[in-house]
Amino acid sequence: MRYSPPKSSCWGHSLGKMKPEKQKELFDKFFGLAVDEYSFSSGSVCYQPDLQDILQNNSFLEFDEYFQRLLNIKQSQPDFSNLSEKQFEICLKEIIHNPSLYVSGKTGVAVVACYQIKAWKIAGKRVPTHSMLIIYFGAKPIITPMFNFKIMTEFEYIRQVLKELEICKLNPKHIKKSH
Predict the structure, then answer these.
(1) How far apart are CA 60 and CA 76, in angstroms?
(2) Number of other residues whose CB lies within 10 A of the CB of residue 52
(3) What is the secondary structure of 26-64 as a DSSP string?
(4) What percentage of the chain carries pLDDT values higher than 90?
């Protein structure tokens, strides 16, 4: 079985206006409680503009220059992709300590991490999986879960952990049978 966000919200589950430091705290708890093995897959940082940003047209340049200096890299792309885990951590710490870089739930910098989950921790037991979790910190905080489960009780356990941590509510109607 696989769980992925509904087509109506293809990017994932909104976390409202949750601040990056709160997200980090909650996801550290989630990984500690429900994930037995995972790896950082990739990171990125991008600028999510609103209409005013587009009309003013200087926010992109400021963003680009700011993160080129922070990461000590030169590039000509509108975002910074394929960041190492260390570079991701630098960017996440930056938006935690400098909240003026984004308006939560609206516009500004988004720092993104993608994790490969290799094993769940279901009621203290290791359960192999091939799952992925993408977390967007900063502007428009969301998570994109692409979870795989062998049986429904595994889904229910992960669902309950996410609910108790008040991260999000997974809806069982978005479970699809694997082929």
Answers:
(1) 12
(2) 9
(3) HHHHHHHHHEEEEEEEEEEEEEE--HHHHHH--HHHHHH
(4) 61
Specify the pTM: 0.89
The set of residues, in sequence order, having a beta carbon less than 8 Å from that of 36 and lying 6+ positions away, is 118, 119, 120, 121, 126, 127
**Could you tell me which residues are beta bridge partners of residue 111?**
45, 137
Instruction: In whole angstroms, give the CA distance from residue 6 to residue 22.
Output: 25
Task: Give the span between the Cα atoms of 176 and 30, in whole angstroms.
Answer: 23
Count CB-CB contacts under 10 A for residue 57: 9
Domain range for 114: 2-176
Looking up tokens 């429900």, which residue turns up? 34
**Over 90: is that where the pLDDT of 47 sits?**
no
CB 40 within 8 A of CB 88: yes
Q: Which range, of 102-111, 133-142, 168-177, averages the lowest pLDDT?
A: 102-111
Domain count, the chain: 1
Beta-strand runs (E) in 84-141: 102-103, 107-122, 125-138
Answer whether 127's CB lies under 8 Å from 36's CB. yes
Q: Is the pLDDT of residue 53 over 90?
A: no
